[in-house]
Amino acid sequence: MHYALVEVVNAIKNVVIKKSDRKKSDRIGAMMMSGKNSKFYFEYASKTDGTSLLELLEEKVLDTMIPLVCTRVPNAYLSYSFEGEKTILALCKESKTGEIAGLGVCIIKTLYVNGQREKVGYFEEVRLKKAYQENQFLIPQMYQFLYNACKEEDISYYITNKTGEKTPEEELLGRKRSYMPDFIYLDDYELFICKVGINFKTFPGYTFRQAQKEDAQELLAFYKKTGQAHDIYPYINKKVFKNQYPGLDIQDFYVLYKDEELVGCGAIWDQRSYKQYVVKHYDLWMGLLQIVSPIFNLVGLPKMPAVDEALAINKLAFIAMQDNDEKVFEIFLTHLQKVAPKCELLAIELSAKHPLFETAKKFKLLSQKGKLYSIDFEKQGVSDLQDKKVYIVN
């Protein structure tokens, strides 16, 4: 009898919640249709907005074991501009005060799809400031503003990701809504945080070293072959080896040879000059661990940063292994552990379909999961990317 009563109560609660969600959805849709946004306006961001944007960005605390904030000191506008070939950065502002209420960012990159180079728009951020999160009708308007701005860029595909956080922005991605573009699921992905440090393993027959200028042509040919065999894989030209992106030149790339043949490569990309992960706070027990963490190096673990200190973390970018060979990737990562003196942690981001996913997982210390979506602004209900092996996220 007790269990039956509980089931009835839960059923009633579910109906109430669904009705509440439907009313909320109808209200946002009505505001969209009526154009009820006289209190707000949209405009393109400029370099002078870079410092003001930091306040909005630093409101968001990542749901990780150690609470982190992703910030972009010293100038958020410039930071986003470093992430692709072109960045469209839009702001929603309150008409009366001019205060920033929301942010939208689309990073335009050239990626391989079907073996061809295509322009892809990655919606990296669509976010409202906490003080304005009741105004959810601004979110679909921001998507539309960015989409309109992208129409002249000859973009073939739009993608975005969802980390599973309970925010108004991510709630709107949960199901189809008449006033939002469709979000078509492509794959899960995971950001692995791996330790670096001394590793005594040796691999006879393999040579691992830092890339040099004379390696450029061989690397370009290797990346072209790899890119054409993948989807959503970065197109790499010689500019990438010449500081096209801050903190990255050819000497940040590493190569692995088996006998005389190039079988793997990737770059250790230090992005801390414009993008940082900062510790927000520690609870009591984690705070005590942080105090004694300098001794962690004795057992191969990194020291924990102090509060308001940035993680010493670099990104493993532009991963390319011959035939996606797991053994080759494991050897490559093992060698990388020895040659990453500028950081204590290495970030590796791969989709779950990637053949190297399980190998990267062996090296993880921490991780954060998410989902990758194609954005369908025309509401066709399908995406050409659905049948693709979306191997690489970065």
Give an overview of the whole structure:
Helix content is 26%, strand content 31%. The protein is α+β, with helices and mostly antiparallel strands and 394 residues long. The chain folds into 2 domains: 2-189, Gcn5-related N-acetyltransferase (GNAT) (Aminopeptidase); 193-370, 3-Layer(aba) Sandwich (Aminopeptidase), CATH 3.40.630. Strands 1, 4, 5, 6, 7, 8, 9, 10, 11, 12, 14, 15 and 16 form a 13-stranded mixed β-sheet that branches. The protein has a 3-stranded antiparallel β-sheet with strand order 2-3-13, with no helix packed on it. Strand 5 and strand 6 form a beta hairpin. The longest helix is centred in the N-terminal third of the chain and has 33 residues, at 2-34. The radius of gyration is 23 Å and the shape is globular. It starts with a helix and ends in an 18-residue tail after the last strand. Mean pLDDT is 86; it is low at 1-35.
**Beta-strand fraction estimate:** 25-35%
What's the number of helices? 9
The mean pLDDT is 86
Give the second-level CATH assignment, the architecture of the largest domain: 3-Layer(aba) Sandwich
Cα distance spanning the termini: 54 Å
Task: State the name of the first-level CATH class of the largest domain.
Answer: Alpha Beta
- Per CATH, the superfamily of the largest domain is Gcn5-related N-acetyltransferase (GNAT)
Helicity range of the residues? Answer: 25-40%
The helix/strand order is HEHEEHEEEHEHEEHEEEEHEHEHE
For this structure, the CATH topology of the largest domain is Aminopeptidase
Return the domain count. 2
Query: In one word, what is the shape?
Result: globular
Supply the helix-strand structural class.
alpha+beta
Q: Quick one: how many beta strands?
A: 16
Backbone CA Rg: 23 Å
- Uncertain segments of ≥5 residues (pLDDT<50)? 1-35
Largest sheet: 13 strands, mixed
